[in-house]
Each structure stands twice: as structure tokens, then as C-alpha cells.
Amino acid sequence: MLGIDTECIVGVMSVKHALLGLLESQSRHGYELKHSYDEYFTQDKPLNYGQVYSTLARLLRGGLVEESGVEAGAGPDRKRYAITEAGVTDLANWLTKPEEPAVYLQNTMYVKVVLALLSGREATAVLDAQRTTHLRAMRELTQRKNEGDLTDALICDHALFHLDADLRWLELTASRLDELAERVRAS
Amino acid sequence: MTGALLAAVELHKSFGSTRALAGVSFSIAAGEVVAVMGPSGSGKSTLLHCLSGILAPDEGTVTYDGHELGRLPDAQRSLLRRTDFGFVFQFGQLVPELTCLENVALPLRLAGAKRKIAELAAVEWLERLGVADTARKRPPDTSGGQSQRVAVARALVTGPKVLFADEPTGALDSLSGERVLKAMTDVARASGTAIVLVTHESRVAAYADREVVVRDGRIRVSEWQ
Ligand SMILES: Nc1ncnc2c1ncn2[C@@H]1O[C@H](COP(=O)(O)OP(=O)(O)O)[C@@H](O)[C@H]1O
Ligand SMILES: [Mg+2]
Fold it and tell me: Do A134 and A73 form a contact (C-beta atoms < 8 A)?
């Protein structure tokens, strides 16, 4: 198991937009939506029907989606859903708005390094252990990337670049430890 | 160390007043891929040169397959380098006047192989590295990534036990670099060749089985594995 969550590409917050995006090209049944979603966005953990229908209910209430016909028979699966104009606008806004650059482990690592220095523990050991863990995850991701298809490669590369950024920060921090130790002890 | 194909113990090496290695120990097993990481100037290339017998350390020993390199006569040491070791550097290791095919065949020709035999083997290695289409081109007429794969083919054509790669993708863009790394590690693993992969990039080191980190001429080993 990887220490990083790459199982579900789409965060909980954006299932809504993922479904909207899938509806934009054509109207679909709930189960079709679920299958497309799983095909595009999940690795191991499929989206459950409950989440599909609760998300659709929310989209209906918000006027971003409408029912586009009910076929003969019974059950929720008979309904087709289509995106509305408001839905297209909402989707477009979301697509063009950059995501907030997330802060990864720096905060926690910073706290650990400072606490190590304060308590007289070896701060380089904290950094080394983190690097070892990061590199192990990077090896697993690289292997997975090389055994998989293009989608795997893109997903793994995203994670790899983030881990690489963490490692650069760890390396830089390692070379600033003496300076940091002085500051920490002076205050 | 048990099972080590190549092992260095307490290497010291200085250039004038610059201490490049300050007591480095290292070992690699047959078929293993080990990344040697560390910031620029930390002593990675010097370590690689000592491990491969290109440089003699001031102190310490390097043992390959039971032979201590420092005790071998020069002629035997350079023979060992040609038969058991392969080398890939950042760039500039191919002869620009020869075709890629001739470049890959060259080590075999120098070892006395007939032209036909050498070129047949060369074609096979170019294919394995996915650059068969460069056979008739000269290195300056190929891309950087293709050149590096040709260089890997040339390094492996003699069937070495250890491949020394010093920043082999350092001059390439990420995508070409990835392709070279994948081809190089796949082919080496398939043929049981160990790789000492020197790099300052973690994305490159991630192609190895494990890594060691050189800092200020020493190898730091994390105690919290
Ligand atoms: N032939 C040389 N003459 C003088 N100094 C050298 C020579 N080779 C390396 N050095 C010095 O030794 C140190 C380690 O260099 P090197 O092994 O090339 O590091 P790296 O490969 O990690 O960048 C550096 O300070 C470098 O300037
Ligand atoms: Mg170097």
C-alpha cells in the first residue's frame, strides 16, 4: 500500500463537477454516469450508487441538472439526466479556476524539525527518515507508472512531482539546519 | 558484506586541499540497481570513478568479484573495465563520425570480434533499447534521448556485470529522460547487470532498488529504515 492516496483521483468536493462534466456531452442514466465516472476517475474504489444519486439530487435542486425523460418500467435507473445551461456555466467556471496550491507536509515537517532541534535530538535523522519514506513511495509510483497505461503515468507523475518538491524542500532544509538551530535556540 | 559484487570500504580521496571522499563505504549486489544521490559537489562522481577503477583512492579498498582493484596490475585493471564494466555519462561518449550501429559495435570490435558478428550484436542491442531506427544515422543527427539510449546499448553490448551511469539523463528533458531510464533499467534488470546510478534527482533515483546519499564526501545511512 502506498502512503499516498491516489486511489480516487477526484476529491469528494468535485464529484459534483465530474458528474456535470460527464453529462455535458450527452444525457445519461444514473448507472451510466457511475460507470463512466469509474472508468475515467477511479482506480480501485468505485463510486457507490448512493453517492451518485445523492449528488444528482443536489444538482437537480440547484438547477444544474434536469430530468430529460423517464422510460417505461420502475426504479431510479429509468431516469435520464441532462445538464442545464446553469450547469454548463458552473462547470466552465470550475474548470477554468485554478486549484489552490496545496501545502503538503512542510508544516508538519517544520514542526518536527524545530521540536527535534529544541529537544536536542538529531534533526537530520528526522529529515533522512522522511526522505527514505518519500523515496520508497516514489519507487512504488515509478514502478506502477512503468507497468501501467498512459492514465497511470499521468496520475503517478502528478504524485511524483509533488513528492519531488517535498524532497527538494527537505534537502534545502537539511543544508539550513545549522542556521535554523541557532534561531531556534536563541528564541 | 555478504553477496556484494562490488564493495568499497572507507574510501578517502582528495584533490589538493579539496576533500572529495571522507570515508565512504558502499556495496552493490549482482543485478542490483542502486542510486547514489547527493547535492552537486558532494563526491558522487569521484565515488563512481573510484568504484570503477578509473581513479585510485588515497585510502580504502575497492573489491570487485573477490579482486581488490588497487592490487591488480594496471593492464588487468583496464581489461576488467572493458569486460566487466560499462559506462554511460551525461553526454559526449559516442564517436560523432561513426554511425550509431558502428558506435555500439565498437567495443566488440576493439575486443577482437569480426565486423559481421559485432554488428549483428549491435543491432540486437539497439533494438532492445528501442532505437533500431538510428542504426545508420550518426549521433549528431539523432535526438539527445536517442543518443543516450545508443550509449546505453554500447555500454551493455559486451555484457558487463556492472553499469556505471553518471547523471545519464542530466542533459535531457523529462520525457526523454524517463524513456532512457526505463529502457536502461528494464534492459539491465533483464540481463542481470547491476547499475550504479549517480544522480541528484529523486525522480531518477526512483528507478533504482535502493538509494544511498552522499553528503560532504560521506554516505549518510538513515537509521530509521
Ligand atoms: N579532478 C579534480 N580536480 C580537482 N577537484 C576535483 C576533481 N574532481 C572533483 N573535484 C572536487 O571534488 C569534489 C567532489 O566532486 P564530484 O565527485 O565531481 O562531485 P559530484 O559528482 O557529487 O558533483 C568537488 O568539490 C569537486 O570540485
Ligand atoms: Mg558529478
Answer: no
The amino acid at residue B156 is L
Rg (CA), chain A: 23
Rounded to the nearest whole angstrom, what is the distance from the C-alpha of residue A77 to the centroid of ligand 1? 69
Quick check: B98 and B110 in contact, CB under 8 A? no
Which ligand 1 atom lies nearest to the CA of residue B49? Answer: 17
- Domain extent at residue B149: 91-159
User: Which stretch of DSSP H or E encloses residue B211?
Assistant: strand B210-215
* Residues A125-177: tens digit of each pLDDT: 778 878 888 898 899 999 999 999 998 999 899 989 988 998 898 888 888 88
Same domain, A139 and A87: no
**Single pTM value for the model:** 0.79
Residue A87 lies in a domain: yes
Domains of chain B: total: 2
Q: Evaluate whether residue A4 is within a structural domain.
A: no
Q: Report how far residue B130's alpha carbon sits from residue B128's, in angstroms, rounded to the nearest whole number.
A: 5
How far is A142 from chain B, CA to nearest CA, in Å? 6
Chain B: nearest CA to A120, how far in angstroms? 17
- Residues of A within 8 A of B186 (CB-CB) are 146
- Total length of chain A: 187
Evaluate whether residue A6 is within a structural domain.
Answer: no
- Give the Cα separation of B215 and B225 in Å (integer): 18
